[in-house]
Specification:
With about 400 residues, this protein is an alpha+beta fold. Helices cover about 25% and strands about 35% of the residues.
Length: about 400
């Protein structure tokens, strides 16, 4: 993406949303942001001011930035992005506002709740490859308009992990047999330790084959999830000093990190030995429960005058929800989010003759993740892992 200002604005919403994360979840600020930006363009008064603040750009620049985000994400390999708009036949839209939306985005709400539900759900399935099966908005009860976005991303690791059973010792996953993912490489620069105002955070980059990467983030014991995720967003912007893998000191070097010397049968180069866990997360979010964060405090009130640039018909935001999923496995990662705003109105070993340096990175307690477009550094999805996948006896290891 060309405009760093827009990337910072979207990633800023990611960091603010992450601030209150307290349990396992997944979310996509990149799915919400364009919708808020389009609404800001058509809003006035308090709704316009609040939406502009949430978007992080002046309201008169918001729609152009939203179109830029949609065009950029639509061009990213491994990422499918779509925007949809459905209105009642009787709702007349301002032509200038409607024309700013992607071509072919406009559909019709028939008023038949069952038929409309079927059509909206089919759209969600189509644009997420079935990862999200239901549009997270109710159309019964007289919805005048639905504005929605869908994001689906898939990547395969450049180097897959090995699947093994693992029982972490101590901590919240003690005595559980988990599906662990392990791999060893000579690329020590994939890991580093950031020094943040709230504590040290270990970051590990897992690279995908299409420039979609996942950054795993492990904070110090007791560090709040939101601060760990916020640190990850800050790292993308170069906001924290980092000690990279090749410069890590011997011994305990950071959260989940140890640098050791091991005996080897061959004169091996320094290596990075990673152990993490497979996970699958699904979450539903009611954005109106965080209306201040999303700039929807005024827009949700059932009074006229919020969106005269959208339609002469008085509109308010009756519902705002997101459904999101993420799956991290041995061979790759996939995630999707659908956001909708409803407008109402491892014989005997050979001799060990050499010493080699090994950086051990172990994610054996809750950690965060960011799915990131490598070149633009746009965060597409984020989450917190508390309940990793169990190892099953029928797993093909």
């Amino acid at each position: 993406m060309r405009a760093n200002t827009t990337v910072r604005a979207v990633n800023g919403l990611t960091a603010r949303w992450a601030a209150d994360v307290a349990r396992g979840t997944v979310f996509s600020a990149a799915g919400v942001w364009p919708l808020l930006a389009f609404l800001a363009d058509g809003a006035q008064g308090a709704a316009r001011r609040e939406l502009a603040q949430a978007v992080g750009l002046p309201a008169d620049r918001a729609a152009a930035a939203a179109r830029e985000v949609l065009a950029a994400t639509g061009a990213m390999r491994g990422l499918d992005a779509a925007l949809g708009l459905w209105t009642k036949r009787t709702l007349e839209l301002r032509e200038a506002w409607r024309a700013g939306l992607p071509a072919g985005a406009h559909g019709v709400l028939t008023g038949d709740a069952a038929a409309d539900r079927e059509a909206l759900d089919a759209w969600a399935v189509k644009h997420t490859g079935g990862l999200v099966e239901r549009m997270p908005v109710e159309v019964a009860g007289g919805a005048e308009m639905v504005l929605a976005s869908a994001l689906a991303l898939r990547t395969r690791w450049l180097r897959p992990f090995e699947e093994v059973p693992w029982e972490p010792y101590g901590g919240p996953w003690d005595a559980r047999t988990l599906l662990a993912l392990r791999r060893r490489s000579v690329l020590l620069d994939r890991v580093g330790v950031a020094d943040t105002p709230h504590g040290h955070v270990t970051g590990l980059k897992v690279l995908g084959d299409n420039a979609l990467d996942v950054h795993l983030l492990l904070g110090e014991e007791g560090m709040a999830p939101g601060r760990v995720l916020g640190a990850g967003v800050g790292l993308l912007a170069g906001g924290h000093p980092v000690v990279p893998g090749p410069r890590l000191p011997r011994g305990d070097a950071g959260p989940g990190l140890r640098v050791v010397r091991e005996r080897s049968t061959t004169p091996d180069p320094p290596t990075l030995d990673v152990t993490t866990v497979a996970y699958g997360i699904a979450a539903d979010h009611d954005l109106l429960e965080r209306h201040e964060l999303f700039g929807l405090t005024a827009a949700r009130l059932e009074v006229p005058g919020h969106f005269p640039g959208v339609s002469a018909f008085p509109l308010c935001v009756g519902s705002a929800r997101q459904s999101a999923v993420a799956r991290f496995g041995a061979r790759g990662f996939e995630a999707a989010a659908v956001t909708a705003l409803g407008m109402a109105g491892a014989g005997a070993p050979p001799p060990l003759r050499y010493l080699t340096t090994v950086v051990e990175a172990v994610f054996d307690r809750p950690f965060g993740f960011l799915a990131v477009h490598r070149h633009s550094r746009l965060v597409l999805a984020a989450g917190w892992v508390t309940d990793p996948e169990p190892f099953r006896e029928d797993e093909d290891c």
